[in-house]
Design brief:
The chain is of the alpha+beta class. It has helices at residues 5-54, 56-61, 64-76, 153-204, 220-223, 257-264, 268-273, 277-319, 338-344, 356-359, 362-378, 422-468, 474-500, 512-529, 549-566, 622-632, 667-675, and strands at residues 81-88, 93-96, 119-124, 129-139, 142-152, 323-328, 333-336, 382-390, 393-405, 411-420, 508-510, 532-538, 545-547, 571-580, 585-592, 636-640, 656-663. The strands form 4 sheets. The chain has a 5-stranded antiparallel β-sheet. Strands 7-6-10-9-8 form a 5-stranded antiparallel β-sheet. The radius of gyration is 65 Å and the shape is rod-shaped. The protein starts with a helix and ends in a 7-residue tail after the last helix.
Length: 682
């Protein structure tokens, strides 16, 4: 386990004091040892010099008694004097203090020349160490012998050991005292650092309301006698005024800490309130926490605002019916709105980060990638109309792709928007159809008038001739054929005139269910003879519409006759009505179980003279007339073949569904229609 800061301080302080104590102990011991040895040497020299001087007369007189007395007195001077003896000039012992006899080997252990005052040797007896001192006995420059004194080293060592122990004990006591004193001094430091550490952990956990700096005896507003409560430093007991921007003291300068600290150091508030380095660190920590809290709050507010703007933008983009998406310069999708997701049938999370190859077929993706590459290379936007087919049928789209530029002017991606213009295309087709019908109507009107007169003459003469020939003759049969075919031509001409002629419309409030019922009552019996039944699904209580009852009957007769002709054999025609409140329209549907209309022909069925019936079965004007009648009533007519599955409960592989949309009447609409009721259609 790693040591904490406090433990490191204690361990470092103890190690330092211990090392210092050991060094002091060693140095002191060496000094004391040298001092004691020096003192012992000087003492031995002093004793030996005095004894050599006193021994000169007894040696000269060969007074052994006095010599013995002197050596014994010398040994008794101290316990550490182990022996004393005297040698004559021949090196023979004269007197000594050994009780068990004189050790002969000691005589040669140390010697001194005439020119030296003494000689010192350390002797080892195996049991103890002895400092042996040799002094020459000189009388009138003549040498008469040698004095030898032995001082025990053991006694000196004991003294040295006692001194070392005393020094060690004293040093230990000093170290212990120093440790306690150092602990007392380090404890406030480490405790404040520990508080800083815990506070930093709290800050990491998101708590920026922590207060580390100590409270002051007097705060800046108290020292300055300031009552400016609007000052940002007023009342903030844990924050120092020199860390706070915008303080209102006359001597304060504007700006953050870096700009104002130099002037603040000359302020007596700073002089009185500033502390040591750790206090400054705590105060800086408080200021940093406050600054972080302020900046974090600003960032959170900015993030909240940004999220709200992003959500608002996403809501706007998702609410718009136009599809919008953004790609980078690698054609990777970065964003897509709801309309685009619905268009391609994918969730947004399955689009973001993908390319066209992940979403579309390979052929279509290659086309889109090529378009994107050209835009990125040239910088020119792309405008196009395209036709797509999907589960909901065929749609026309108007697509715009524009380059998106970055701050450095480079193209960073593409923004694409598109709009469903299927309805616009349908209206354009209807307009073209109406224009075509108008042109054809003018042509037909002229032709019909030219043909009608000779047809009347042919029919009249044929009828006159029939009165003059016998009924059983061949001529009579031939004339009947002429009459019949002339009548057919007259009917075709009448249809042409009805298609092209402007007729007056009488607009009034109608119950569309009654109009339809009148039509069905007329044709129902005839249809039943050919095993074609009529099914009614008329929603009751439909709102009234404004229209010409006879013209609407003609339109419905044309539709049910067309449905009847499409059924070969047994079948059913279903007529439905209902009200669409959202569109404010009455919707009439005519559904048959016939053979249906092929996809190649369905776009042309409202063209004049276009028919899918066999020759002699139709003129191709019924649906064209119906189209004009519905358009006159401000409505529209649509066809689907085969019909949607949900609209057909009769099991059939074909059939067609014609749907008419008629606007509902209102007071304002009635007025408008009343004003234009005399305007006819072709």
């Amino acid at each position: 386990m790693k040591l904490g800061f406090r433990s490191k301080i204690y361990l470092g302080l103890f190690s330092l004091l211990l090392l210092l104590g050991i060094v002091i102990l060693f140095v002191v011991s060496m000094i004391m040892k040298e001092a004691l040895l020096e003192e012992n040497r000087n003492r031995g020299i002093s004793i030996g010099s005095i004894l050599a001087a006193r021994m000169a007369e007894p040696v000269l007189a060969m007074d052994f008694f006095r010599m013995k007395t002197l050596v014994d007195e010398t040994v008794r001077l101290s316990d550490d004097i182990f022996y004393t003896f005297v040698l004559n000039d021949k090196g023979k012992p004269l007197v000594h203090t050994f009780k068990g006899g004189f050790p002969i080997e000691l005589k040669e252990a140390n010697s001194v020349s005439d020119i030296h005052k003494y000689s010192i040797r350390l002797l080892d007896t195996g049991k103890q160490l002895i400092y042996d001192y040799a002094f020459p006995i000189i009388i009138d420059k003549d040498r008469f012998g040698t004095i030898r004194i032995g001082l025990l080293r053991t006694k000196i060592q004991e003294v040295i050991n006692r001194l070392i122990r005393s020094t060690f004990l004293s040093t230990g006591i000093v170290i212990i005292i120093a440790v306690f004193v150092g602990t007392a001094l380090a404890l406030p430091v480490t405790s404040r650092i520990k508080i800083l550490h815990k506070s930093s952990e709290q800050a990491l956990l998101g708590n920026l309301d922590i207060q580390v700096a100590p409270l002051l005896k007097k705060n800046c507003w108290e020292i300055m006698n300031c009552n400016k409560k609007e000052c940002p430093a007023y009342g903030k007991t844990y924050h120092r005024c020199w860390y706070i921007a915008g303080t209102m003291c006359p001597d304060c300068i504007e700006g953050e800490y870096a700009q104002k600290i130099k002037s603040c150091k000359n302020c007596h508030v700073y002089y009185r309130c500033s502390g040591d380095e750790i206090q400054s660190l705590a105060e800086s920590f408080n200021s940093m926490a406050l600054s972080l809290k302020t900046h974090l709050s600003e960032l959170q507010n900015a993030e909240k605002t940004l999220k709200e703007q992003q959500q608002l933008l996403k809501t706007v983009l998702d609410a718009t019916p136009d599809f919008v998406f953004l790609q980078n310069n690698k054609s990777v999708y970065l964003s897509a709105n709801k309309s685009f997701c619905d268009l391609i049938g994918r969730q947004e999370k399955k689009i973001i980060g993908k390319t066209d190859f992940d979403i579309f077929s390979e052929r279509r993706a290659e086309t889109y990638i090529k378009e994107d590459h050209n835009i990125l290379k040239s910088g020119n936007p792309l405008f196009k109309e395209c036709k797509i087919s999907g589960r909901e049928g065929t749609k026309w789209l108007h697509v715009v792709k524009i380059p998106v530029y970055e701050a450095d002017g480079k193209i960073g991606g593409l923004l694409c928007s598109g709009r469903d213009i299927t309805e616009l295309k349908r209206v354009q087709e209807q307009l073209a159809q109406a224009q075509k019908m108008e042109s054809i109507g003018q042509l037909v009107a002229g032709i019909a008038h030219e043909i009608n007169t000779p047809m009347g003459i042919v029919l009249g003469y044929a009828q006159l001739l029939l009165e003059e020939v016998k009924p059983e003759s061949q001529a009579y049969n031939d004339l009947k054929i002429i009459e019949k075919q002339t009548r057919i031509c007259k009917k075709i001409v009448a249809d042409l005139l009805r298609f092209s002629r402007r007729t007056e419309s009488t607009m009034k409030l109608l119950n569309i269910n009654e109009t339809i019922e009148d039509v069905l009552t007329v044709v129902e019996h005839t249809f039943k003879l050919d095993r074609v039944s009529l099914a009614r699904r008329l929603e009751p209580a439909l709102p009234a519409i404004v229209g010409d009852n006879e013209k609407l009957k003609q339109a419905f007769i044309n539709l049910v006759n067309n449905a009847f002709d499409a059924i070969s054999g047994e079948g059913m025609i279903t007529i439905s009505t209902h009200y669409d409140a959202q569109l404010d329209e009455v919707i009439i549907s005519v559904l048959d179980t016939g053979d249906g209309i092929s996809s190649g022909k369905i776009d042309r069925i409202f063209d004049p003279f276009y028919t899918t019936k066999p020759v002699g079965k139709g003129t191709g004007l019924g649906l064209a007339v119906t189209f004009g009648l519905i358009q006159e009533h401000k409505g529209k007519i649509e066809v689907e073949s085969p019909p949607p599955a949900e609209s057909n409960d009769v099991k059939s592989s074909g059939g067609s569904l014609f749907t008419i949309h008629l606007p509902v009447s209102g007071e304002k609409k009635e007025m408008e229609i009343e004003d234009v009721k005399h305007i006819g259609i072709r």
